[in-house]
Amino acid sequence: RVAKLVGAQADEVAIANSMTINLHQLLSTLYKPQAERTKVLIDAHSFPTDRYALRSHLRLRGVDPDKNIVIAPAGDSRFLDEAEIEKALTNPAVQMALFPSVVYTTGQLLDLERLCRAARKNGVIIGIDMSHSVGLIPHTLDNWGADFAGWGHYKWLNAGPGAVAGLYLNRRHFDPNGFVDAGLAGWWSVHKESMFEMSDEFFPGLGASALQIGTPAVLSMAPIEGALLPIEEAGLERMRAKSLAMTEFLMDAIESELEEFGFRIGTPRDPERRGGHVSVVHEDAQPMCLALRARGVIPDFRKPDVIRLAPSPLYNSFADCWEAIQSLKEITVSRAYENFESSATLVT
Predict the structure, then answer these.
(1) Which pLDDT score is estimated for 347?
(2) Mean pLDDT (the chain, rounded)
(3) What is the DSSP string of 247-285?
(4) Could you read off the pLDDT of 131-168 as tens digits, one per residue?
(5) For 46, what's the count of Cα atoms within 13 Å in the CB-facing half-sphere?
(6) Residue 194: its pLDDT value, please?
(7) What does the DSSP assignment read for 58-116?
(8) Helix H or strand E encompassing 28
(9) Mean pLDDT (whole number) for 24-52
(10) What topology is assigned to 2-226 in CATH?
């Protein structure tokens, strides 16, 4: 069922671990540095946790992350330019690339088919962090030609914090019989029919399930079942259409109601370039987020100046969007946000 959401075959998808552990597993399985090909390409706005995992993995492999992580430039723009990423993918020293489907700060949706095509052309293994898009935006990983992907089920999929994550491994990384030799092996990495033989010999598992490592946390998997039901009933295409309409409505309201107070939109206007959230830019974003929470509006803050508004098409309404903008306007006009202190470590 999850495989359908990401445009993959069932044996290419596994439900396992957390997003970060899955990234470590996928790196261990697919990152194969060679004499002149050791570098990993990421984007200038990549999610910090992905960078932490990548840097630690390279260190464990005896590879200097400072010399072997290449960052595709964004210049002075908040948005990434696929043309610049394509240029970076032609670097013959790049062995692997990792990009987000949706940039977590700006809500920019990358042209993943274009990037996967460029990676394949240059012989680069390409992975996608889909944490900010799965369960909201239709994906076609097989058709795009991605090598691997990972995501959480606690954002748009609504399975709650701590829900077990998901991963994708393109079947071209299976051996001719469908087996996968996991980089990080464990009990659940073996062939499932041999699990209880307790053999000293390791028999690789089949497909993406070989990347599961250890016993899945069943209680943390259970919410995924319930979370999938309303998404399947509503349909991803309809959810995506409503999501785009809601974010368009939000941006129109920001321009008409808040622009005079110094607010700017930090998300692409083009619906083909937009994920599911709107980034509102203001120098006092953090105390404003706290003030909104006190009024029952739940945004989140991202440094240095972003208020993220992420309406869910499953349960939020256009009226909710309007009320959120009016609340933001009220705390700005009244300067009520000045009653809330900023914190250097706070993310709301």
Answers:
(1) 54
(2) 94
(3) HHHHHHHHHHHTGGGT-EE-S-SSGGGB-S-EEEE-TTH
(4) 999 999 999 999 999 999 999 999 999 999 889 999 99
(5) 25
(6) 78
(7) HHHTT--HHHHEEEE--TT-SS--HHHHHHHHT-TTEEEEEEESB-TTT-BBP-HHHHH
(8) helix 19-30
(9) 95
(10) Aspartate Aminotransferase; domain 2 (3.40.640)
Q: How far is 113 from 91, CA to CA, in rounded Å?
A: 19
Q: According to the model, what pLDDT value does residue 346 have?
A: 54
**Average pLDDT rounded to a whole number, residues 182-194:** 87
Residue 224's closest CA among 165, 167, 169, 312? 165
Among residues 225, 228, 183, 192, which one has the least CA distance to residue 21? 183
- Give span(s): CATH 3.40.640.10, the chain: 2-226
For 42, half-sphere exposure in the C-beta direction (CA atoms, 13 angstrom radius) is: 20
- R_g (Cα) of the chain, nearest Å: 21
At 237 the pLDDT is 96
Give the model's pLDDT for residue 341.
Answer: 82
Query: How many whole angstroms separate alpha carbon 345 and alpha carbon 334?
Result: 26
Asked if the model's pLDDT at residue 345 lies above 90, the reply is: no
Distance CA 262, CA 155 (A): 29
Angstrom distance (rounded) from CA 302 to CA 229: 31
- As a residue count, the chain comes to 348
Structure tokens that stand for 59 in this block? 């260190």
Pairing verdict, β 166-169 and 264-265: unpaired
In the chain, CATH 3.90.1150.10 sits at 236-339
CA distance linking residue 244 with residue 306, whole number of Å: 20
- What per-residue string of b and e applies to 210-220 under the rule 16 or more CB within 10 Å gives b? bbbbeeeeeeb
Type of residue found at 41: L
CATH number of 236-339: 3.90.1150.10
The pLDDT assigned to 333 comes to: 97
> Which tens digit of pLDDT belongs to each residue from 45-81?
999 999 999 999 999 999 999 999 999 988 667 899 9
From CA 25, how far away is CA 165, in angstroms rounded? 12
Write the DSSP symbol of residue 47.
-
**Spatial contact of 41 and 91, defined as CB atoms under 8 Å apart:** yes
pLDDT exceeds cutoff 60 at 239? yes
